[in-house]
Amino acid sequence: MVIAINGVSSISLIAAILTMSIGELVVRSNKKVNKTEIEPPDQTVSTPINHPTIEIEDLTVSTEVTTSFRLYRQTELNRIIASLLASGSLLITGEEGCGKSVLISAVVEKLQGDGFVVAHIEPTTPKQMLLEIAYQLGVETQSLEGKALSAEQLRRAIANYLENNTAFLVIDDVQFCEAKFRMWLKQLRKLQVPMLLLATNPPRTDIFINIPRIELQPLPEYAIRELMEQAALERGINLKPSELSKLQERAGGNPMLAQRAIEEEYLGLEVEGADHDRS
User: Fold this and answer.
1) What is the spatial distance between Cα 64 and Cα 235, in angstroms, rounded to a whole number?
2) Residue 54: its pLDDT value, please?
3) DSSP state of 176
4) pLDDT tens-place string over residues 218-248
5) Which candidate, 154, 165, 201, 205, places its Cα nearest to that of 182?
6) Which of the 8 DSSP states describes residue 92?
7) For 114-178, where are the alpha helices, taking DSSP H only?
8) Taking phi first (over 0 means left), then psi (-120 to 50 degrees means alpha), and beta for anything else, what does residue 97 get?
9) What is the pLDDT of residue 87?
10) Quick one: which of 215, 150, 161 has its CA closest to 188?
11) Over the stretch 138-164, which tens digit does the pLDDT of each residue have?
12) In the sheet that 27-28 helps form, which strands lie side by side, from edge to edge?
């Protein structure tokens, strides 16, 4: 049976989903789709956004943008989830491009899929970050008189909510947040608010000095090779095994550098050496 959704047959829609790129290279579709409840084989994870779903037989297709990628850090994912559910806080560190954001997208998806409230933000101004956290948690940002809350009032309102409700804070690139904001996070940690922070080369001060951390190691060679093969396929590049091996040495286990190496090969650029952090 073929079901048409907005003029598109279910067979065409499923085919489009199956042809999405796999790997830590995140490929976005222009089609709006919602929460995908599929458990793909081989640790494939999809990152959804909550919206009403449309079910086609055993396949649930969403109506918001869905990103598909392959997750090579299942062990780290399980460890992070377990720590957060135990009301713990974690700092995830690693060199730029090592896959922190991909991993955290999987964490957020898992928590939201299990029905938890998650506020996932990136650094901006302290006031804007507080407003974004409040918005995602459903915390009022105005007084009863309709006046906008000050930064201090927002901090108190958010802290009060987190003390009385189960919710998770996930913040990317915390090293770029102002010190005063990070000190507020340190206060939240004392209240046992579960939070997950991401940072590249974080300083050993304020929140960073007393929070447990997991440092992401380079991806194994097979994973980097798969990512590069997929990137080469998307660019229509035919690479010999020896050529792939040479490019792989430049990536050094870093998925972002692996993608860049293929881009440079596609453009015909001559690149010597590597710029990853591996010694």
Assistant:
1) 27
2) 29
3) G
4) 999 999 999 999 999 999 989 888 888 888 8
5) 205
6) E
7) 126-137, 151-164
8) left
9) 73
10) 161
11) 999 999 999 999 999 999 999 999 999
12) 27-28, 67-70, 44-47
Q: Which helix (H) or strand (E) covers residue 168, if one does? A: strand 167-171
CA angle, 179 then 181 then 186, to 5°: 90
Q: Letter for the amino acid at 217?
A: Q
Contact between residue 247 and residue 65 where contact means Cβ atoms under 8 Å apart:
no
* SS3 at position 120: strand
- Residue in 84, 193, 68, 77 with CA at minimum distance from that of residue 133: 193
User: And the tokens for 40?
Assistant: 């793909």
Q: What percent of the chain has pLDDT over 70?
A: 72
Contact 155, 130 (CB under 8 A): yes
How do residues 170-220 score in pLDDT, each as one tens digit? 999 999 999 999 999 999 999 999 999 999 989 888 899 889 999 999 999
Cα–Cα distances in Å, from 190 out to 50, 89, 112? 31, 10, 24
Helix boundaries (H) for 174-220: 179-190
